[in-house]
Specification:
One of its GO terms (biological process) is lipid metabolic process. The chain is an alpha/beta fold. The protein is built from 16 helices and 25 strands. Among the domains are: 218 residues, Mutm (Fpg) Protein, Chain: A, domain 2, CATH 2.60.270; 204 residues, no CATH class. Strands 11, 12, 13, 14, 15, 16, 17, 18, 19 and 20 form a 10-stranded mixed beta sheet that branches. The chain has an 8-stranded mixed beta sheet with strand order 22-21-8-7-6-5-2-24, with no helix packed on it. The structure holds 2-acetamido-2-deoxy-beta-D-glucopyranose (NAG) (2 copies).
Length: 604
């Protein structure tokens, strides 16, 4: 085991000698930084052929990525494995991610395979275990239990999403602040929960999940085209559930649908996903209606006040039901009809100061509005170019997108292994904090791949998201960040969805939510040019225990969620699915010792 890094030791013992309420506890100081620059093993990406479900099912190799957004080192206590060629786990330093590798020997073993990795959070009494076990016969044989019962954060059994891909665990918080992990979603209004932490940060220093083609959570066929669920649906859950799953930036493409015989009539405003909205012949389909979206947003903000929600509204043209005659440009009447739908959204923010880019306003400028209920910002970026067509209605909170400076980076790559380095390069090229060097825009990282129509139809956009793409955000993406380098919006397909076609709210998983919370709480807070006060995870006095933590305590849960959805809220303390009670003779320990006879599992 490696020696304790000096700074971690300092954090663990600081309370004994630093003055409580002294300056050291309120001011961010470079010497407090815990972020580790230790190199991690390079992350692997799912090879293309494993997307084929038949090939993927035969794979015996997969990964468990652990993301550490805490000021403590996560230390490996030990591992054991049986029937495995590779069982490679290791420490996860502060601010880093480790993609741990599991590879079965030969083919599948049904009854006697075992593999567990035991971890503890350095300098605390918290521990957790990762328990790998296969179940044959079963349609979902490859599983891992993330057992965080030793942190009071429950246990959850996950099925690996596909061949050679990862299940991810994101942990944030601290011993002082309290911990949270990605097994379950926290409160819907996560921004309000960390109001004390982010209120003074300009919006361009926030980090938030975003939803790509957000309204394409279903296929509604309001236009006649070949867009199908496989190649045109980008999300598994509605805008309401995407909001609950943490999304705050919505890429929404809206068009009006017109009868083939009458461009003057409008069959309503619908989300569209088209190959090219301006093309003579458009290929694609429609998703949610604007009416549905309005009521979903209103439901969310009524239940979860205090957030900043961005709607980037694109397209803004009409198409015929049979979309083969080019776009119908909106005239003033159609645009006003659209605006009056938008006025149905509650908690809009009219009459904002437009002399300053919205990205430069502190978060509190928006979060405090509407009596503390926050802002739904409507930002238009479509084809509103006609004579006399309004481009905004600032009194109603409808703004041109140019009111906020954004850089929207799309890689346009089919493979996650090509997309990831391209995205990381973009956010590494901009500096966060540091006076005039500070990057002035909101950087949208499109963490998604763009398969061609043939590949997306064959393998589905959902598989591309859940197998090669989303899991790589937690390994490659996180290791491309540090306190000076990160994107603002993590734009993703299938937000909240961890497992193919499992779209019910209680089947979702909170990796993206917890990542965003942790990047704001931990990573950005370690940059003293972004965060002038002491990191919320290191404070001791007064306000150090944020509302996040108090709310988490109120929601304390140490149950078990099984892969089939069965949930036990109060399991007996001895119930640990996937745990090997006996380590058989032939079991390999992580110090490469091979057991010559069977022993009882020595770990608690
Ligand atoms: C779900 O899995 C648990 C644990 O394996 C099992 O006890 C339970 O019977 C299963 N429920 C269903 C409905 O299959
Ligand atoms: C390996 O670990 C086991 C269990 O902790 C221990 O008993 C054994 O002595 C270790 N072997 C070596 C070579 O360090």
């Amino acid at each position: 085991m490696k020696a304790l890094p000096f700074l971690t030791a300092l954090v663990a013992t600081a309370s004994s000698w630093l003055p409580v309420n002294g300056q050291a506890d309120t001011v961010c100081q470079a010497a407090d930084r815990t972020f580790s620059t230790e190199a991690m093993p390079a992350s692997n990406f799912q090879p293309y052929d494993k997307l084929n479900p038949i090939v993927g099912k035969l794979s015996t190799k997969f990964y468990i990525t652990v993301v550490n957004l805490t000021p403590h080192r996560i230390k490996l206590d030990g591992t054991h494995s049986y029937q495995m060629d590779t069982f490679d786990f290791g420490d996860v330093p502060q601010g880093r991610a480790r993609q741990n590798t599991v590879k079965y020997r030969g083919t599948w073993y049904t009854r006697d395979d075992a593999g567990e990795a035991y971890y503890r959070i350095d300098g605390t009494d918290k521990q957790f275990a990762l328990r790998v076990k296969s179940y044959i016969p079963s349609s979902d044989p490859r599983r891992v239990v993330l057992d965080l019962s030793g942190m009071g954060l429950g246990q959850r059994e996950y099925v690996f999403p596909g061949g050679d891909t990862a299940v991810s665990l994101v942990i944030t918080g601290s011993a002082r602040f309290g911990f949270r992990a990605s097994l379950r979603h926290g409160p819907g209004n996560w921004m309000r929960g960390m109001y004390d932490v982010i209120r003074d940060r300009p919006v361009r220093h926030l980090i938030m999940p975003g939803s790509h083609d957000a309204g394409m959570s279903k296929i509604t066929s309001k236009i006649v085209s070949i867009g199908s669920e496989e190649n045109t649906q980008n999300q598994g859950v509605s805008i309401y559930d995407q909001l609950r799953a943490g999304s705050r930036w919505f890429d929404l493409r809206i068009g009006s649908v017109h009868p083939n015989s009458d461009a003057g009539r409008n069959n309503g405003f619908w989300v569209m996903h088209l190959s090219d909205e301006m093309a003579t012949l458009a290929i694609g389909n429609t998703g949610e209606s604007l009416d549905e979206i309005v009521s979903e947003v209103n439901r969310f903000t009524a239940e979860n006040p205090g957030e900043i929600i961005f709607f980037s509204l694109r397209y803004l043209v009409g198409r015929y039901e049979f979309p083969d005659r080019g776009p119908i440009l909106w005239d003033a009447a159609l645009t006003n009809a659209f605006f009056s739908k938008l006025r149905g959204i509650n908690n809009r923010c009219g009459n904002l100061d437009t002399s300053t880019g919205f990205q430069n306003q502190p978060a509190s400028y928006f979060m405090d509005r509407n009596g503390g209920k926050g802002c739904v910002l409507l930002l238009l970026t479509g084809h509103l170019d006609g004579e006399g067509v309004p481009r905004e209605a600032t009194a109603d909170g409808i703004y041109d997108i140019s009111r906020i400076n954004i850089q929207d980076h799309w890689s346009n790559k089919m493979q996650a292994s090509d997309m990831a380095p391209d995205q990381i390069k973009t956010w590494r090229s901009v500096q966060r904090g540091g006076g005039s060097a500070d990057y002035g825009s909101l950087l949208i990282a499109q963490w998604l791949v763009t398969p061609d129509a043939l590949a997306s139809t064959a393998y589905t956009l959902q598989s591309f998201a859940l197998e090669p793409t989303n899991p790589s955000l937690y390994s490659a993406g996180v290791n491309g960040m540090d306190p000076e380098h990160w994107p603002n919006v993590l734009l993703a397909d299938y937000v909240g969805v961890q497992r193919q076609d499992e779209w019910a709210w209680d089947r979702l998983s909170a990796e993206l939510y917890t990542l965003a919370v942790g990047l704001n709480l931990y990573l950005a807070s370690e940059n003293c040019d972004v965060n002038t006060r002491r990191s919320p995870l290191l404070r001791r006095s007064g306000e150090e225990k944020g509302t996040v933590h108090r709310r988490e305590e109120a929601l304390a849960w140490n149950g078990i969620i099984f892969a089939n959805g069965t949930t036990i809220d109060a399991p007996p303390p001895t119930l640990h699915p996937g745990r090997a009670e006996v380590l058989r003779s032939g079991t390999v320990l992580n110090n490469r010792t091979v057991l010559e006879e069977s022993i009882a599992n020595p770990w608690p």
